[in-house]
Specification:
Layout lengths: L4 E6 L5 E5 L4 H10 L6 E5 L5 H13 L2 E5 L2 E5 L10 H4 L7 H10 L1 E5 L12 H9 L3 E5 L2 E5 L7 E3 L5 H11 L5 E5 L5 H12 L3 E3 L5 E5 L8 E3 L4 H13 L4 E5 L7 H9 L2 E7 L2 E6 L7 E3 L11 H8 L4 E6 L9 H7 L4 E4 L2 E6 L8 E2 L3 H12 L4 E5 L11 H7 L3 E6 L3
Parallel strand pairs: 2-14, 3-13, 9-10, 17-18, 21-22
Antiparallel strand pairs: 1-22, 1-23, 3-5, 4-5, 6-8, 7-8, 10-12, 11-12, 14-16, 15-16, 18-20, 19-20
Bound molecules: uridine-diphosphate-N-acetylglucosamine.
Family: Belongs to the EPSP synthase family. MurA subfamily.
Keywords: Cell cycle, Cell division, Cell shape, Cell wall biogenesis/degradation, Cytoplasm, Peptidoglycan synthesis, Pyruvate, Transferase
Protein name: UDP-N-acetylglucosamine 1-carboxyvinyltransferase
């Protein structure tokens, strides 16, 4: 078994230098599944080497795919798929394993996928996925926690999502591209990762219209073909390092490989706070701030609204703002667990229903803290970096699910952060 580790951070060290953003985890996971839709060899560039990706690849290998990182790309060979059932031990580790449902049913008209695990940020049901696939003609039964899906053929129809769910849209797209006739997904998600998957499917030969809009139209094809693609930059990782740059007045951080188009709302919020981005090169921006940060109101919403995944970082940043800020979480009900940890560091935050009220500025003081989920964990590391004294962050395995070379990237700009074995 893997030894548990912790990060030991000495805070308040001014940070200076460049950090390069990796390819997006949440674009890589559906792209990996999409390689099942047409047997053959795929090359995916810029897939981040993070735990969630490795977990998806283990599932792919269990199904019969051959996956290898070579030079700067991930090679996946799906010519010899022999198994259509996803093992529980792996599915329970990652919520995105639900994406195998759409890919396997789309390609092989049969799948066995356990109800997924993943970060404990809310109830996270999969009813939209199940309902949509049934509407396409799949017969779905739940047996001993496994979704068992069979169908003779999938037949295109109009599906209206109750909420623009990211992975439900992705699953239905992957099923729709090989269904008979037209599949229309109304109230579809518009996230850049959804658009990216759509573009990959189009490159594979799918006919898709309406990407990035409320309604996606898919004309089913009999066959697709393997492709080579490059993963888009991770907008959440980019947001993480932009916040890092703004956390202390002395920080001088340049974030490279940013797609600013994907970060419009968070960048507008930064500007409202008095933080600006100065272009230093194509896709590279220096974070600039003055002595003080303005308080703001943030409401999370599906894209292009403020991303739920970035709210913990903004909460940490707003502990440094002059006055009262509000963050309302509208996507997941359990996304304020990190607040207890931040309060232990001296932050003045109260949570009322779905809103965190942050009274700043407070100087944070290092203390032992626990990552409560992937994004909150990374946000707490940032809190440690601007806190006085030493902060020990536990449960860091959660952070490593989604951040490539997190400790190395932070050390690269001068952060004092060490990885130690957690003896507790
Ligand atoms: C994806 C992202 C995750 C991000 C989230 C919101 C991936 C792998 N993960 O997660 O990092 O935080 O989008 O941007 O891309 N819901 C239902 N029934 C369903 C499906 C969803 O009620 O069948 C609800 C969820 O509980 C949640 C909301 O819909 O309240 C949105 O969730 P969804 O967009 O599906 O998130 P994920 O795709 O799981």
């Amino acid at each position: 078994m893997e030894r548990k580790r912790k990060y030991v951070i000495k805070g308040r060290k001014p940070l200076k230098g460049e950090i390069e953003v990796s390819g997006a985890k949440n674009a890589s996971l559906p792209a990996i599944c999409a390689t099942l839709l047409s047997p053959g060899v795929y090359k995916l560039k810029r897939v981040p080497k993070v735990k969630d990706v490795f977990c998806m690849l283990k599932i792919m290998e269990h199904l019969g795919a051959v996956c290898e990182f070579e030079k700067d790309y991930l090679k996946i060979d799906t010519s010899k798929i022999k198994e259509l059932s996803v093992p529980y031990e792996l599915a329970s580790q990652i919520r995105a394993s639900i994406l195998f449902l759409g890919a396997l049913v789309g390609a092989y008209k049969s799948a066995e996928v356990p109800l997924p695990g993943g970060c404990a940020i809310g109830k996270r049901p999969v009813d939209f996925h199940i309902k949509g696939l049934s509407q396409l003609g799949a017969e779905i039964n739940l047996e001993k926690g496994n979704l068992i899906v069979k169908t003779q053929k999938l037949k295109g129809t109009t599906i209206v999502l109750d909420f623009p769910s990211v992975t439900a849209t992705e699953n239905l797209m992957m099923a729709g591209v090989l269904a008979e006739g037209e599949t229309i997904i109304k109230n579809s998600a518009k996230e850049p990762e959804v658009v990216f998957l759509g573009e990959m499917l189009k490159k594979m030969g799918a006919e898709i219209k309406g990407l990035g809009d409320d309604t996606i139209y898919i004309k089913g094809k009999k066959k697709l073909k393997p492709v080579n693609i490059e993963i888009i930059p991770d907008r959440i990782e980019a947001g993480t390092y932009l916040v890092l740059g703004a956390l202390m007045e002395e920080n001088e951080i340049v974030v490279k490989n940013i797609n600013k188009e994907h970060l419009k709302t968070p960048i507008l919020k930064l500007e409202e706070m008095g933080i600006t981005l100065e272009r230093v090169d194509k896709n590279a921006f220096k974070v600039k701030r003055g002595k003080t940060i303005n308080p703001v109101k943030i409401i999370t919403a599906p894209y292009p609204g403020f991303p739920t995944d970035l709210q913990p970082f903004f909460a940490v940043l707003l502990t440094q703002a002059e006055g009262i800020s509000f963050i309302t979480e509208n996507i997941f009900e359990n996304r304020f667990l990190y607040v207890f940890e931040l309060k232990r560091m001296g932050a003045d935050i109260e949570v009322k229903d779905r809103t965190a009220i942050i009274n700043g500025p407070t100087s944070l003081i290092g203390s032992p803290i626990k990552a409560t989920d992937l994004r909150a964990g990374a946000a707490l590391v940032l809190a440690g970096l601007c806190a006085e004294n030493t902060t020990d962050v536990y449960n860091v395995e959660l952070i490593e699910r989604g951040y490539e070379n997190f400790v190395e990237k932070l050390s690269g700009v001068g952060a004092e952060i060490k990885v130690e074995e957690d003896e507790d």
